[in-house]
Design brief:
Layout (H helix, E strand, L loop, with lengths): L2 H8 L2 H10 L4 E2 H5 L6 H13 L3 E6 L2 E6 L1 H31 L1
Antiparallel strand pairs: 1-3, 2-3
Protein backbone atom coordinates (compact mmCIF):
# COMPACT_ATOMS: atom_id res chain seq x y z
CA UNK A 1 0.00 0.00 0.00
CA UNK A 2 1.02 3.57 -0.49
CA UNK A 3 1.08 6.64 1.67
CA UNK A 4 -2.51 7.76 0.87
CA UNK A 5 -3.95 4.55 2.34
CA UNK A 6 -1.58 4.73 5.29
CA UNK A 7 -2.41 8.32 6.18
CA UNK A 8 -6.13 7.70 5.68
CA UNK A 9 -5.94 4.78 8.12
CA UNK A 10 -3.98 6.92 10.59
CA UNK A 11 -6.50 9.74 10.39
CA UNK A 12 -9.02 7.96 12.61
CA UNK A 13 -8.54 8.28 16.40
CA UNK A 14 -9.88 4.76 17.09
CA UNK A 15 -7.35 3.26 14.70
CA UNK A 16 -4.55 5.29 16.27
CA UNK A 17 -5.62 3.99 19.68
CA UNK A 18 -5.56 0.41 18.38
CA UNK A 19 -2.02 0.99 17.09
CA UNK A 20 -0.98 2.36 20.48
CA UNK A 21 -2.40 -0.75 22.15
CA UNK A 22 -0.49 -2.99 19.76
CA UNK A 23 2.74 -1.17 20.54
CA UNK A 24 2.89 -3.23 23.75
CA UNK A 25 2.54 -6.51 21.86
CA UNK A 26 0.14 -8.61 19.88
CA UNK A 27 -3.51 -8.77 20.89
CA UNK A 28 -6.48 -10.83 19.86
CA UNK A 29 -9.47 -9.20 18.21
CA UNK A 30 -11.45 -9.83 21.40
CA UNK A 31 -8.82 -8.10 23.55
CA UNK A 32 -8.88 -5.10 21.24
CA UNK A 33 -12.68 -4.97 21.14
CA UNK A 34 -12.92 -5.08 24.95
CA UNK A 35 -11.26 -1.65 25.12
CA UNK A 36 -13.97 0.04 23.08
CA UNK A 37 -17.66 0.72 23.50
CA UNK A 38 -18.61 -0.30 19.95
CA UNK A 39 -19.86 -3.32 18.12
CA UNK A 40 -17.57 -6.13 17.10
CA UNK A 41 -18.36 -5.34 13.48
CA UNK A 42 -17.11 -1.77 13.94
CA UNK A 43 -13.88 -2.96 15.55
CA UNK A 44 -13.46 -5.45 12.70
CA UNK A 45 -13.90 -2.60 10.21
CA UNK A 46 -11.12 -0.60 11.88
CA UNK A 47 -8.84 -3.62 11.98
CA UNK A 48 -9.52 -4.22 8.29
CA UNK A 49 -8.60 -0.62 7.46
CA UNK A 50 -5.34 -0.93 9.39
CA UNK A 51 -4.60 -4.25 7.72
CA UNK A 52 -5.35 -2.86 4.23
CA UNK A 53 -2.87 -0.05 4.94
CA UNK A 54 -0.28 -2.67 5.99
CA UNK A 55 0.00 -1.06 9.43
CA UNK A 56 -0.87 -4.33 11.15
CA UNK A 57 -0.80 -7.98 10.27
CA UNK A 58 -2.74 -10.91 11.61
CA UNK A 59 -1.69 -14.34 12.75
CA UNK A 60 -4.20 -17.15 13.14
CA UNK A 61 -3.67 -19.59 15.98
CA UNK A 62 -6.34 -22.21 16.57
CA UNK A 63 -9.60 -20.29 17.08
CA UNK A 64 -7.98 -16.87 17.58
CA UNK A 65 -6.69 -14.12 15.35
CA UNK A 66 -3.88 -12.04 16.79
CA UNK A 67 -2.90 -8.62 15.51
CA UNK A 68 0.58 -7.10 15.59
CA UNK A 69 2.19 -3.90 14.36
CA UNK A 70 3.96 -3.95 11.03
CA UNK A 71 6.91 -1.84 12.10
CA UNK A 72 8.45 -1.74 8.63
CA UNK A 73 5.65 0.58 7.45
CA UNK A 74 6.31 2.92 10.38
CA UNK A 75 10.01 2.90 9.55
CA UNK A 76 9.20 3.82 5.96
CA UNK A 77 6.97 6.69 7.13
CA UNK A 78 9.68 7.94 9.50
CA UNK A 79 12.26 7.80 6.74
CA UNK A 80 9.99 9.75 4.42
CA UNK A 81 9.19 12.33 7.13
CA UNK A 82 12.86 12.73 8.05
CA UNK A 83 13.54 14.36 4.70
CA UNK A 84 11.58 17.37 5.91
CA UNK A 85 13.26 17.67 9.28
CA UNK A 86 16.64 16.91 7.73
CA UNK A 87 16.30 19.82 5.28
CA UNK A 88 15.42 22.18 8.08
CA UNK A 89 18.39 21.08 10.16
CA UNK A 90 20.73 21.39 7.19
CA UNK A 91 19.43 24.89 6.51
CA UNK A 92 19.95 25.86 10.15
CA UNK A 93 23.53 24.56 10.02
CA UNK A 94 24.20 26.63 6.90
CA UNK A 95 22.72 29.74 8.51
CA UNK A 96 24.81 29.21 11.65
CA UNK A 97 27.97 28.76 9.58
CA UNK A 98 27.16 31.92 7.66
CA UNK A 99 26.64 33.88 10.91
CA UNK A 100 29.93 32.61 12.33
CA UNK A 101 31.84 33.68 9.20
CA UNK A 102 30.48 37.23 9.29
Amino acid sequence: MGFPETFKALSDPVRREILAMLKKGRLSAGDIASHFDMTGATVSYHLKQLKNADLIYETKEKNFIYYSLNTSVFEEIMLWLSQFTGDKTEKEVQENEKSENE
